[in-house]
Amino acid sequence: MAQPPPATMRAIAIRDGGWRFEEVPVPVPGPDQVLVRTHAAALNRADLLVLDGSYTVNPALAAREQPIAGMDGMGEVAAVGKRVPTTSVGDRVMYMATSAFADFIAIDHRLLMPVPLTLSAVQAAATPSAAITEYDALIVQGGLREGQHVLVLGAATGVGVLATQIAHYAGAATVIGSSTDPVKRTRLDRYGVHVAIDTRRPDWAATVLDATGGHGADLVIDHLGGNALVQALSATAVGGTIVHLGHLAGRHAEIDLDQLGRRRVRLIGSTFRTRTREELFAIAAETASALRPALTEGAIAPAVDRVFPFSQAEYAAAYLTSGQAFGKVVLDFA
């Protein structure tokens, strides 16, 4: 028999532009929610941007009004609301939702993704946001088709590593990934990358053209922005698509609109910050269904760089900020 939840729990509250450990009440799930006992939670760069006010969380993802940090988690269902149709106490689930940095989270059951038995708690915690973001960018927004050439800018990030694998799994003919770190570039081939490039080199767009027989990338997934996005236009195939997701290299870019039009490139901006609850429910369900076989078989797996105890969350944030991580940084709640 499952152990009932306690009255209070540990949580990382967002206070005065920083994180603070607090003891707060365990949430009571509503009729459409489940209560999840957290086993692990992953850090995202967005967690850090929230602190300086440069990232606004979608209210549709909010698990509670109290400002608790975290957007990615995994755990075991501890209680179920009366209108939840299929989820049961004891189920292993992962999710993209706010308030993940706490011992318990009450979350709408339609945001849950089942955890394959082949994934550990740490791996599962590192999966939801990256999988949903990159599946949506590649398949839904980008319309990736088998045999196309894909370029992932920022491929060594937690989301980038999932993007390259999803592209490979979906049948991309060529997967090109970027990193400015030479050691990280040597690791990308384990995650579906055929050609690794350094966007600090002025000729990197030419390398993409060479790798694709002069064709260019049919689909570019851009986590960098800035000048990398400008240069990506030269690396994109005529009639190709760029899906812009992040701006690690800068929030502003001066684009040659003549080049954009001449090459007939579609430039799509994508985020979950402005999507409705129904849209979030739909993409979570579609991603879970489409990627479950690959996750179960191990064809797709997150790269976890380091695991920190929950009590050392601030050290984990500092490590992520340092830029050393290849893939995800995860908090262990054991």
Automatic annotation (TrEMBL):
MF annotations from Gene Ontology: NADPH binding; oxidoreductase activity, acting on NAD(P)H
Keywords for this protein: NADP, Oxidoreductase
SMART domains: PKS_ER (SM00829)
Domain of life, source organism: Bacteria
Matches recorded under InterPro entries: ADH-like_C (IPR013149), ADH-like_N (IPR013154), ER (IPR020843), GroES-like_sf (IPR011032), NAD(P)-bd_dom_sf (IPR036291)
Domain Enoyl reductase (ER), first and last residues per copy: 17-331
KW Transmembrane helix (keyword) present: no
Gene3D superfamilies: Medium-chain alcohol dehydrogenases, catalytic domain, NAD(P)-binding Rossmann-like Domain
Protein name: NADPH2:quinone reductase
